[in-house]
């Protein structure tokens, strides 16, 4: 009996989580430490023995290069644009779809569809839509008397175009999260507000938003991390161009994948540190304003 209790309480839990922990150690922890190790080397891909330990030289080079700061600024602009637009539009659409009707259920399924489609397919479709000469978007602009836009072909509009595609693909997923959060708000709270003759604006900002703030906080964290790591959309649609206008940090790292592994690894460590600091600041500043039921 004692052996059975020892197995169930002391041994079995660790046995059950062992496969998951092994996966985390193998595919998360080990790569992170190996990345940090490589960041201190001038690594030779062809001959490992010729790799040279350079200490902090890679990090000194990072902070002395203008192209790093340009890619960081591009990443920040992309992140702010995607996070703000996606959260704002998702919240508006979620409020519109919050009522449980058959039509709303169909619309929810429809707006979620882009999220499950391959980003390669999404990017190729949008590249066709944004084609300057024969694209549908410019055709629509011309039909209402507006000038055509260069979209992906100009450094002044390329980043905006990538942001539009990212928002379009993600908006459905986060809308459904917010819809589920709205449905979790207890109806008696709204009934009490109605008895107090509270108008809809006050109800939304003083009751609804605080009660769904945990979900909004979760979306903010996940979207910020995901936006800082954007790569596939940029790679497919612009290749970092034109003139480096869409070169984000991850794509910047990708450009050094063959000729400077040590420098690319050091940049990856810097990116990891930036995301960690942002996440810490979010939790430190905003977590106190999140209302958990």
Summarize the structure.
The chain is mainly α. The protein contains 13 helices and two strands; from the N terminus they run αββαααααααααααα. The chain is 71% helix and 1% strand.
Main attributes of the structure:
mainly alpha, 2 strands, 293 residues, MetI-like fold
* N- and C-termini, Cα separation: 41 Å
What is the overall pLDDT average? 90
**CATH topology tier name:** MetI-like fold
CATH class: Mainly Alpha
Tell me what portion of residues adopts beta-strand conformation: under 5%
Q: Please give the count of helices.
A: 13
Q: What is the architecture at the second tier of CATH?
A: Orthogonal Bundle
Q: Structurally, how many domains make up the residues? A: 1
Which bin fits the share of residues in helices? over 70%
């Amino acid at each position: 009996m004692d052996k059975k209790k020892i197995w169930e309480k002391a041994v079995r839990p660790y046995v059950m989580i062992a496969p998951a922990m092994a996966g985390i150690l193998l595919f998360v922890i080990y790569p992170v430490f190996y990345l940090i190790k490589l960041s201190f080397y001038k690594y030779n891909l062809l001959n490992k023995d010729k790799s040279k330990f350079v200490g902090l030289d890679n990090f000194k080079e990072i902070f002395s290069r203008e192209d790093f700061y340009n890619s960081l600024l591009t990443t920040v602009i992309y992140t702010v644009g995607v996070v703000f637009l996606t959260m704002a539009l998702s919240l508006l659409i979620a409020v519109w779809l919050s009522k449980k009707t058959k039509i709303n259920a169909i619309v929810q399924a429809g707006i979620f569809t882009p999220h499950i489609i391959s980003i390669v397919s999404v990017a190729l479709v949008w590249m066709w839509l944004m084609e300057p000469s024969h694209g549908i978007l410019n055709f629509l602009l011309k039909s209402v008397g507006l000038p055509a836009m260069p979209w992906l072909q100009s450094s002044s509009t390329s980043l905006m175009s990538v942001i539009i595609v990212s928002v379009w693909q993600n908006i459905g997923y986060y809308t459904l999260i917010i819809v589920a959060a709205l449905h979790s708000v207890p109806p008696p709270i709204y009934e009490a507000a109605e008895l107090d003759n509270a108008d809809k604006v006050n109800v939304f900002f003083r009751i609804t938003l605080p009660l769904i703030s945990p979900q909004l906080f979760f979306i903010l964290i996940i979207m910020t991390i995901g936006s800082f790591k954007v790569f596939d959309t940029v790679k497919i649609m612009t290749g970092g161009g034109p003139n480096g206008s869409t070169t984000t940090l991850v794509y910047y790292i990708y450009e050094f994948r063959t000729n400077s592994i040590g420098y690319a690894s050091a940049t990856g460590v810097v990116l990891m540190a930036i995301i960690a600091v942002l996440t810490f600041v979010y939790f430190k500043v905003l977590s106190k304003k999140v209302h958990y039921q």
